[in-house]
Design a protein that fits this description.
Strand order of the largest sheet: 1-2-4-3
Shape: rod-shaped
Number of helices: 7
Radius of gyration: 40 Å
Largest sheet: 4 strands, antiparallel
Order of helices and strands: HEEHHEHEHHH
Number of strands: 4
Length: 195
């Protein structure tokens, strides 16, 4: 027996919702479990009412999508008595439509929680989109500052090089006076100095 719908945690439903083909969907087996009906009976009800499930309410996974889904989660192995058909996935509207088909108190009660889970994921996606936009804006501002800083930095480096060159000139001792070429007698030096 499953949990009463009132005790069903919203997180357990949101964890079952996946993103495929740009839409948030829930696999038929998970939806059947939530509605407390066997997957086979659930799919039979859907098959009897296919007109109520346009492509934006429900679609069948491709082999590649199913293989990717199987690798991401613990789904049954096809060679071991597991699924014989590709699973159906339901959007928010399809999950609600399926609950009306089943017409059981449990399905109707749980469908409210399923819709809330889809809404919560939509809100989270909007929040993430807002954060992504803010991050992109911040990156643009940072790049603009880096460009300004680079220009400032280049000017500063040129000025600092000039300052360092001037300091090196001041630190370098002046060249001693050149000595005359040839032989100069020491007396000549003394004589020149006395004059």
């Amino acid at each position: 027996m499953s949990l009463p719908a009132a005790l069903l945690p919203l997180e357990s439903i949101t964890q079952r919702i996946i993103s495929l083909r740009g839409q948030r969907v829930i696999v038929d087996a998970d939806l059947a479990t939530l509605y407390d009906v066997p997957t086979k009976r659930f799919n039979e009800a859907v098959k009897r009412n296919l007109a109520k499930f346009p492509d934006d309410f429900m679609f069948v996974l491709t082999e590649d999508e199913f293989a990717a889904l199987r690798s991401q989660s613990a789904t049954s192995n096809p060679g071991r008595g597991g699924r014989r058909y590709l699973p159906r996935v339901f959007t928010e509207h399809g999950a609600l439509m399926a609950a009306t088909l089943l017409n059981s108190p449990r399905a109707i009660e749980v469908s409210v929680y399923v819709v809330r889970a889809f809404v919560r994921l939509r809100e989270l996606a909007a929040t993430h989109a807002d954060l992504a936009k803010r991050l992109a804006d911040l990156e643009q501002k940072t790049e603009a500052l880096a460009i300004k800083h680079e220009g400032f930095s280049r000017n500063t480096r040129v000025q600092l090089k000039q300052v360092f060159d001037a300091l090196r000139e001041l630190m370098t001792p002046p060249e001693p006076p050149k000595r005359p070429i040839g032989f100069v007698a020491p007396e000549d030096k003394k004589a020149k100095g006395k004059r």
